[in-house]
Each structure stands twice: as structure tokens, then as C-alpha cells.
Amino acid sequence: MSGAEATAPLNIHASAVALNPDCGVLILGPSGAGKSALALELMAFGARLVADDRVDLHVLEGGLMASGPTAIAGQIEARGIGILAAEALPSAQIVLAVDLSQEETERLPPARQIEIGGVVIPLVLRLRSGHAAAGILQYLKAGRVA
Predict the structure, then answer these.
(1) Of 33, 16, 34, which is closest to residue 25 (Cα–Cα)?
(2) Which pLDDT band holds residue 6 (cuts at 50, 70, 90)?
(3) What's the Cα-to-Cα distance from 134 to each of 19, 59, 75, 119, 140, rounded to whole Å?
(4) Residues 103-114: pLDDT tens digits?
(5) Coiled-coil region(s) at which residues (predicted)?
(6) CA 72, 64, 94, 125 torsion: positive or negative?
(7) How far is Cα 122 from Cα 140, in angstroms, rounded to an integer?
(8) C-alpha 103: how far from its chain's center?
(9) 88-100 mean pLDDT
(10) In whole angstroms, what is the distance from residue 1 CA to residue 129 CA?
């Protein structure tokens, strides 16, 4: 993604992790919804931290890019444990969003989307089952078939 101007960053309350700089997930939800906990689970499966608690977003070449504010770069909260250090990616393209403020009620939900900064991104809602992190990770690796 070189040679194009980026938009001015939008700073939001969220977390972001990525498998690599081209494959990240933005985790949305209110305070206490479990954004950091989900990010930690994904990191345990091999994702890398981009940002926790606050995420800077900007549009670059039609894609949504995430990065962490300098003051909290490489830090993630583990509730009940403390603020932990993590080797963070400086930025990643967001290819999936998870909204923890809405619960998924359908077994096979329709393809959902969210628009952020004019960029449309696939969206999944909060899952109450134990496979949320594994399912999100597989989505990042191979996408959704149906």
C-alpha cells in the first residue's frame, strides 16, 4: 500500500490484532465487553497485537488501516492480571470487524458488514460459544464460504 495518501486518523475505543500486516481484525464494543480478552485469545492462537483500548484508523488505498497510539503501543490489559507487554505490529489492514455489543442469535448468520470511514468490512457479532477466537482466526486465514 505505497504511494497513496492516507486519511487523517480516527481514534476509537477498540482493540485490533492481526495475523500479518495485511490481515487484521478490529474488535468493537463498550467498556467491559471483552475486547482485550478476545484480543488475548487471538494472540494465544498466533495473532499479534496492533492496539488495545484505543485504535487509530485511517483509509489508505481504499483499505482500512489500524495502528496503536504511541503512548500505549505494545501494551494490552489482562483484567485481573495487569497491563502486559506484547510485541506489536506497527499497523495492519483491517479485513474483519467483531462487534461485541451485539449478540449473534443465528446458527448460520447472513454475511454482515459495517462501514467505517467509508470502507465496508465484513462483520461478525458476539458469539456466546467457546469457539469465537478459533472461528475468527479461521475466518482471517481462509475467509467465509457461506
Answers:
(1) 16
(2) low
(3) 13, 28, 23, 25, 10
(4) 999 999 999 999
(5) none
(6) positive
(7) 11
(8) 17
(9) 98
(10) 36
Q: Which secondary structure element, helix H or strand E, spans residue 26, and what is its range?
A: strand 23-28
In the block, which residue shows the cell 479485513? 95
The SS3 call for residue 43 is helix
Joined together, the cell numbers standing for residue 8 give 487523517
Give just the sign of the alpha carbon dihedral 52, 56, 57, 59. negative
Contacts of 82 (CB under 8 A, 6+ apart): none
Contact 48, 89 (CB under 8 A): yes
Report the chain's mean pLDDT, rounded to a whole number.
94
What are the backbone angles phi and psi of residue 56, rounded to the nearest 5°? Answer: -90, 125
DSSP assignment of 76-135 equals EEETTTEEEE--B-SEEEEEEEEEEEEE---SSPPPEEEEETTEEEEEEEE--STTHHHH
CATH topology of domain 10-140: Rossmann fold (3.40.50)
**Contact assessment for residue 16 and residue 27, using Cβ atoms and an 8 Å cutoff:** yes
